[in-house]
Structures are given as structure tokens and as C-alpha cells.
């Protein structure tokens, strides 16, 4: 079953196409292999073995050991689990440090904790979306329970200097969580001797189905379960495992590892070609984010005098999927919190679109996409000028 021939899917930071090899790998666990991995007989053991193979594969991609990988239902659950675990260790540590550009999984969780009496320090970012490391260091206090900072931003692709952030947090001896949902499979990650206690990832951002994720929990750190019940996942996450999806995640991580270099060169080339052609053919375009430190697959662009929502609708009619980098709440368009944190005016934020590519995109699609974008921009500009 193929996507419509005319579909140009340039929204891979929102979700990705499931790799056919991943589907093949998970199918037996949706059909004949329906055993419960916690059952003692060999039919159940087969499912348990499949879980352990998946755990090994995820661990191999992360550069950690298999028992440090905990399967969850999504990236959001992983992040909630990490934050709540860190807070459960010391009831007197009621302070969290995070950034203004986090995904809502972190943002909304911290906002809701703030309503329950926790104190949150929100680190701002500069016009490239980068945090100030001195400010980070100063923000960490004796009563800080946790620092949570995303590795790569989903809207702009800006990569935080993770190594240096880890070093700073490690010196202070507080828990560190990173939302790595956007980096896994795009940039090499090695947790071997990093100062990270928790790392969140999500299957559907790396060519695996939706509804499965993982949380890395450093074996030396204390951990408190978020979901309580049965003893699954070594007592760390109750609930019968989603075996088929976990098998899929394992396969997706194995493929991601094999494709890492390819992602870094082929996909980067597609993105760079796209940007180059856009700059050549469309006037008044600027890149949002940090061109020196950015995901290889992402470009966020501002189109001067162009309402991004109108452009998005035009592109949608032509079968091109991208993102306005803003959430449409109750019919009113809120400018992206990420672009606002970068100091953009509402006006500029409302002219921004994000395009994110994957290994399933082609050079032909890039050419076609730029053509559509060119006609879309001139259409929207002429309408608003009229
Ligand atoms: C998609 C995404 C998430 C949420 O992952 P889900 O599996 O959809 O819950 C969290 N953080 C970032 C940066 C993301 O891009």
C-alpha cells in the first residue's frame, strides 16, 4: 500500500513513514506470536525473547546496556516518567530547570507541576535557539531536583551542545533528562560515559509505528516507576508490553544505526539542495535556527510578507505536507512558542514553515516541492498585497 503518488511528505519531524522492513518484523507478533511475555511457558518466552532482542537493538543504537532501556507507550510517557522519577527521590528538592523551547511533553508537565507548588526556572534562548550555558550553571541550586533539556528542537532543528550541558549538570550533581526524540536515528548518540540519567525517544519519529517509545535510565541512578501494577520491565513500568510495537522499535533502531551515515549525507544533501533552490528561486526567505548546529533533516524558513497558514493550505491542496510550527488552538493561530522564545515578533513567527525530510524522500520530490513552494509564495503574497 503506497502513499498517493502525488504526496510530498516533508513533515518527518511530526511523524515518519513506517519502514516496510519494520512492518515485516512486527507482523508475526500481531498474528501467530500472541503470547504474553510474562507467561512461564515457552509460547510466552518467545515473546519475552523478542522483547529482549529489541532491548539489545535499542541499547546498541544508544551506546548503553540493554537493562538500561525501558519500553514505554511514547516519547511523552518517557519524559513524564523521567521527570516524576527525579522528583520522587528527594521530596525537598522542588525545583526544576528547563528551557522555553521544549516540546509540550516537557513544557506542559512542568507547567502542571508549577501549579502543584514546584518551582520552574525557564531558560531562555538566543535568536538561533541556543541556551546560555552560564545561565544554566547559575540556575542550578541546592534544591534543584532535575535539569531537563531537549537535544534537538523539533521546530528549528537546533542542536543544544549536549556534551557541555551534561558536564555542567554533572558537576552540580542533579538529575539530568534529555528529550532526544528528534536526534535518535539522525545524529550519533553514545551514552557510554555521559552524565545523562534519563533520555527519551519515540518510535514514530524513526520509521516505527506510533504508540511506542523508550526511556533510557542510567543503571546507577535511583528510579521510581510512573506506572505501577505488574512487575513488567523489571518492575520499572507496569502493564503488559506492546510486544509487536516494541519488536518494531528494535528493528527501527537497528535500521537507524545502519542508516546513520546515510541520514547524515543523503538526507542532509536533500535538505541543503532544498534550501539552496528556495533561496535561488524565492525572494525574502530566511533560515530560523542555528545553521552551524542543526539536525541534518530539518529546515525552518521565514517567508517575508507571507502568511504561513495560507501557504500551508495552498501546499496541502497540492499534496505537500509541512508544518507551520504553530499550534492551532480553538481556531486561533498561536505563533510558535519556540520562535517567540527566539525573540521573533508574532509577525515573523507567522511567516514560518518547517520542512523535515527522511530517507524516503527523493531528489525529484525536492525539485517538485520547490516548484510548488515558489508558486504558493507568490500566490499568497499577491493575495495579501491585493
Ligand atoms: C514528537 C516529539 C515528542 C513526543 O513523542 P510522542 O511519541 O508523540 O509522545 C516529544 N519531544 C519531541 C522533541 C518530539 O518531536
Topology at a glance:
Elements: E1 8-9, H1 20-26, H2 42-62, E2 69-72, H3 75-89, E3 95-99, H4 104-115, E4 119-123, H5 133-139, E5 144-148, H6 162-172, E6 175-179, E7 198-202, E8 213-217, H7 243-281, E9 285-288, E10 298-303, H8 308-317, E11 320-321, E12 328-329, E13 332-333, H9 337-341, H10 346-349, E14 352-356, H11 363-385
Parallel strand pairs: 1-11, 3-4, 3-5, 5-6, 6-7
Antiparallel strand pairs: 2-8, 7-8, 9-10, 10-14, 12-13
The structure holds pyridoxal-5'-phosphate (PLP).
Pyridoxal-5'-phosphate binds at residues 13, 74-76, 103, 105, 150, 154, 179, 181-182, 202, 204-205, 213.
Keywords:
386 residues, alpha/beta, Aspartate Aminotransferase, domain 1, Aspartate Aminotransferase, domain 2, 2 domains, 7-stranded mixed sheet, 3-stranded antiparallel sheet, globular, binds pyridoxal-5'-phosphate
Instruction: Report the helical percentage.
Output: 25-40%
From the alpha carbons, calculate the radius of gyration and give it in angstroms: 21 Å
Shape: globular
Number of helices: 11
Order the strands across the largest sheet as they lie in space: 2-8-7-6-5-3-4
Overview of the structural elements:
- The protein has 386 residues and is an alpha/beta fold.
- The chain folds into two domains: 8-17 and 259-385, Aspartate Aminotransferase, domain 1 (Alpha-Beta Complex); 20-258, 3-Layer(aba) Sandwich (Aspartate Aminotransferase, domain 2).
- The chain is 40% helix and 15% strand.
- The chain has helices spanning 20-26, 42-62, 75-89, 104-115, 133-139, 162-172, 243-281, 308-317, 337-341, 346-349, 363-385, and strands at residues 8-9, 69-72, 95-99, 119-123, 144-148, 175-179, 198-202, 213-217, 285-288, 298-303, 320-321, 328-329, 332-333, 352-356.
- A seven-stranded mixed sheet has the order 2-8-7-6-5-3-4, with helices on both faces. A three-stranded antiparallel sheet has the order 9-10-14, covered by helices on one side. A two-stranded parallel ribbon has the order 1-11.
- Helix 4 (104-115) links the parallel strand 3 (95-99) and strand 4 (119-123).
- The longest helix is centred in the last third of the chain and has 39 residues, at 243-281.
- The protein is globular, with a radius of gyration of 21 Å.
- The protein starts with 7 loop residues before the first strand and ends with a helix.
- The model has no long low-confidence stretch (mean pLDDT 95).
- Pyridoxal-5'-phosphate binds at residues 13, 74-76, 103, 105, 150, 154, 179, 181-182, 202, 204-205, 213.
- Residues 13, 74-76, 103, 105, 150, 154, 179, 181-182, 202, 204-205, 213 line the site of pyridoxal-5'-phosphate.
Amino acid at each position: 500500500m503506497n502513499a498517493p503518488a502525488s504526496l510530498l511528505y516533508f513533515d518527518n519531524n511530526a511523524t515518519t513513514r513506517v519502514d516496510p522492513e519494520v512492518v515485516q518484523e512486527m507482523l508475526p507478533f500481531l498474528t501467530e506470536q500472541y503470547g504474553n511475555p510474562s507467561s512461564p511457558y515457552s509460547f510466552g518466552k518467545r515473546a519475552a525473547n523478542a522483547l529482549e532482542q529489541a532491548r539489545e537493538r535499542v541499547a546498541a543504537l544508544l551506546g548503553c546496556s540493554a537493562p538500561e532501556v525501558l519500553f514505554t507507550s511514547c516519547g511523552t510517557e518517557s519524559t513524564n516518567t523521567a521527570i516524576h522519577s527525579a522528583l520522587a527521590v528527594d521530596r525537598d528538592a522542588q525545583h526544576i530547570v528547563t528551557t522555553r523551547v521544549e516540546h509540550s511533553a516537557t513544557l506542559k508537565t512542568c507547567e502542571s507541576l508549577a501549579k502543584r507548588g514546584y518551582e520552574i526556572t525557564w531558560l531562555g534562548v538566543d535568536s538561533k535557539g541556543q541556551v546560555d550555558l552560564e545561565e544554566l550553571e547559575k540556575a542550578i541550586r541546592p534544591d534543584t531536583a532535575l535539569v531537563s533539556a531537549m537535544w534537538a528542537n523539533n521546530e528549528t532543528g537546533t542542536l543544544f551542545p549536549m556534551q557541555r550541558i551534561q558536564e555542567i549538570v554533572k558537576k552540580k550533581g542533579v538529575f539530568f533528562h534529555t528529550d532526544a526524540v528528534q536526534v535518535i536515528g539522525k545524529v550519533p548518540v553514545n551514552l557510554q560515559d555521559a552524565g545523562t540519567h534519563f533520555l527519551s525517544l519515540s518510535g514514530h519519529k524513526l520509521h516505527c509505528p506510533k504508540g511506542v517509545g523508550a526511556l533510557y535510565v542510567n543503571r546507577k541512578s535511583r528510579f521510581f516507576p510512573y506506572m505501577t501494577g505488574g512487575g513488567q520491565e523489571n518492575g520499572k513500568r507496569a502493564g503488559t508490553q506492546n510486544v509487536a510495537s516494541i519488536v518494531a522499535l528494535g528493528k527501527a533502531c537497528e535500521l537507524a544505526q545502519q542508516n546513520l551515515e546515510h541520514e547524515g549525507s543523503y538526507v542532509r544533501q536533500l535538505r541543503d539542495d532544498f534550501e539552496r533552490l528556495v533561496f535561488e528561486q524565492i525572494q525574502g526567505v530566511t533560515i530560523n535556527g542555528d545553521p552551524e548546529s542543526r539536525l541534518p533533516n530539518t529546515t525552518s524558513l521565514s517567508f517575508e510578507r507571507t502568511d504561513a497558514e495560507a501557504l500551508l493550505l495552498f501546499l496541502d491542496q497540492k499534496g505537500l505536507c509541512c508544518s507551520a510550527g504553530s499550534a492551532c488552538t480553538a481556531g486561533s493561530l498561536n505563533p510558535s512558542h519556540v520562535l517567540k522564545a527566539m525573540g521573533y515578533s508574532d509577525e515573523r513567527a507567522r511567516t514560518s514553515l518547517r520542512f523535515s525530510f527522511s530517507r524516503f524522500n527523493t531528489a525529484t520530490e525536492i525539485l517538485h516541492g520547490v516548484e510548488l513552494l515558489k508558486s504558493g509564495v507568490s500566490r499568497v503574497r499577491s493575495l495579501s498585497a491585493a
